[in-house]
Amino acid sequence: MKRHPLLRRRFLAGAAGLLSSAVLLTGCGTGPAATPPAPAGDASGEITFWSSLAGMDKVAEKFNASQDKIKVTFETIPNGGNGGYAKLSTAITAGNGPDVSTIEYAQLPQFVSNGQVLPLDGFIDKANTVDKLNEQIRGLVQFDGKSYGLPYDAAPMVMWYRKDLLDRAGVGVPKTWTEFETAGRKLKAVAPKSYLASFYPNEPTLMAALAWQGGAKWFGTEGDSWKLGLRDEATKKVSDFWQRMIDQKIVKVEQAFSDEWSADLANGTLAGVLGANWSATGIQKRTEASGQKGKWIAAEAPNWGTPAGAFYGGSSFNVTKSSKNPAAAAKFIEFLATSPEAIAARGNTGSAYLAYPGLTKEAQKAFDAGYFGNDIYAVFDKAYATILPGWQWGPNWDVTNTALKDSFGALTTGGKIDAALDSSAEATLSGLTQNGLSVKE
Amino acid sequence: MARKTSTMSGTGGRTAALFLTPFFAVFALAIIAPVVYSLVLSFYAQQKSGLGFGEAKTSFVGLENYLQVFQSETFTGGLGRLALYCLIYIPSMVGGAVVFALLLDATAARARKLFQLLVFLPHAVPGVIAALIWAYLYTPGVSPLVQALQSGGIQLNFLDAHLVLPSVVNIAVWEWTGYNVIILFTALQAVPREILEAARVDGAGEIRTALSIKFPLILPALSVIMLFTIIGTLQLFTEPSIIAKATASVTSTWVPNLWAYDAAFNRHNLNQAAAASIVIALLAAGLSLAVTRLSSRMNKS
């Protein structure tokens, strides 16, 4: 009985929100696209923005110069692998986090689950942001019908090959994983010491992408419980395949981005890199000095018979719980994620592939893809078009991620991918249950 | 002011209080408060329910966090690994330090200042940098060390699951031997020269003097070193966390401190992390007590 007035107030507030967004809608519909978005009430003041993405300082500067109501202070933080999320999470809990954060899709659910990021509904112009997104990418920032961030990049998994080495072995670009295996064998016949790709113990998100592409669903919900799928049929198929690749030495187990990996790329030990659109700069940096210009090509990752893709990486922008000015923060996020100016301001920061329609061509302008032997963006487009729908990240990817990393560590001394998935599933189960969540397998 | 003269006359109490207050203020703020806070945290748990979206409830759970810490195979495994680490590290580091110090103190030693500097130099390198340098030296494909061994026909992967522990021990030995040599060397300098002369008159050679006279006389310094080393070992964190970037053999829960970090920042279970930290602190306190007891007994006899 007592709750009625409150409920009504909430309903009224909601209605008011709807009304104001309707006003916004019409405002945007009639005005020319280039004019700054309609003012959203009191969206002004000073906000802070944390990101580990290169060039974001320039984007913040551009935003500050473009208007005079909101002033953004930018701060570079380490990336997730180097403790960026630990820093962000503790700062938000302590109440001195930034207003705007950068969180990868895999980690977003845990920030949502910990109540550390705010839903953007009511702050953003939904029709011109979230609603315009591709369904697969939208699903990665929406929980329980609310949007907890705006997607920045949509990173399709792609495979990079040394075309010259494939030619020498007399194989074409593998279309399926079966062809991949054959190509690997032929490559080894010509150059016994080379590998067609690497398996990265330190990149469980790639294992997830491979499973995703194979039709697995590692996380899902069933009523009021989480459903884990680290040991589902599709994952088994994928892990058996990669185990076979490792056993035949077609694939080398090594840390991604390590000195060892860099050396293998530079000296031609590796004929391929399983990565994403963003791998381009990394490959170029590591192989440029050894005269591999024009030898690298991008290709859709091999599939299991029918074209299928997955995302490997990508970040979203979010308003944190510690923000004192969510309205201004949301305004800035809209600029970050949907404005061509923001992309242009960032300059050349690699071969970005962006979630918001029409932005990728802006990123493409800044990136010189001349190092590569084919039209890499055409490949990204194809890979992006085949992303399998229905993948969801779990409530605490960090648990699964570290468990996988730890158990993949044994791969070089006789460990198996199967066993690693097994122990990681157990670790995830106990980690989540200890936090009180309901989990099934 | 009149007060000034009264303190000048040295009544002790108030002056002492004046000087001690800043220390105790900072000590309470930076040491006692966090410990009390951790202690409180360790008895509570943040419990979510269902899918976990929404507010978590904080409830008193008694010793359950401690139970989870001890039941965790990775935590006890980490303790075991730490024990093994000590078993390799302490004899090699302390042994090395004693030998170096005795050599430096030997009357026949030449260019003593230069060697002192050379031995101490690694300690001047910050731990993080040392770990990075060694990570480079251990990585196959880039390390000149691995390459040299390979050309000599020795295939070693310092970073695989079998060798990574000795490899981490080696970093610590490299870092800390020099530091402890200086402490022991100072203790050796304090050995009364007349005793050494008496030994020489009695016909003891350099080695005999070192073993029968000098070594027993630096035992107190040695026990201090042991104490610091054991506490330092329990704090092992930097080196493995840096090496973990170069190899997957160092897991996220490799040693107890990493376990606590993992609990706090990967599993988002601050309460469990607090419990683990308290356990580590208690272990350090217990071991310190044991070492001081043991060494005081040894010194008496």
Automatic annotation (TrEMBL), chain A:
PROSITE patterns referenced in this protein's UniProt entry, alphabetically: PROKAR_LIPOPROTEIN, TAT
Gene3D superfamilies from the UniProt entry: Periplasmic binding protein-like II
Keywords noted in UniProt: Cell membrane, Lipoprotein, Membrane, Palmitate, Signal, Sugar transport, Transport
One Pfam family linked to the record: SBP_bac_1
Organism: Arthrobacter cupressi
Superkingdom of source: Bacteria
SUPFAM superfamilies the UniProt entry points to: Periplasmic binding protein-like II
Name this protein carries in UniProt: Multiple sugar transport system substrate-binding protein
UniProtKB/TrEMBL annotation, chain B:
GO biological process, one term: transmembrane transport
Keyword Cell membrane belongs to the record: yes
Membrane topology listed for this record: Multi-pass membrane protein
Keyword Transport tagged: yes
Keywords: Cell membrane, Membrane, Sugar transport, Transmembrane, Transmembrane helix, Transport
InterPro entries assigned to the protein according to its UniProt record, in alphabetical order: MetI-like, MetI-like_sf, UgpAE/MalFG_permease
Compartment(s): Cell membrane
Gene Ontology CC terms, in alphabetical order: plasma membrane
Gene3D superfamilies in the record: MetI-like
Transmembrane segments: 20-45, 82-103, 115-137, 217-237, 273-292
Domain ABC transmembrane type-1: 83-291
Domain of life: Bacteria
PROSITE patterns, per database record: ABC_TM1
Similarity-based family: Belongs to the binding-protein-dependent transport system permease family.
Protein name (Swiss-Prot/TrEMBL): Multiple sugar transport system permease protein
Organism in which the protein naturally occurs: Arthrobacter cupressi
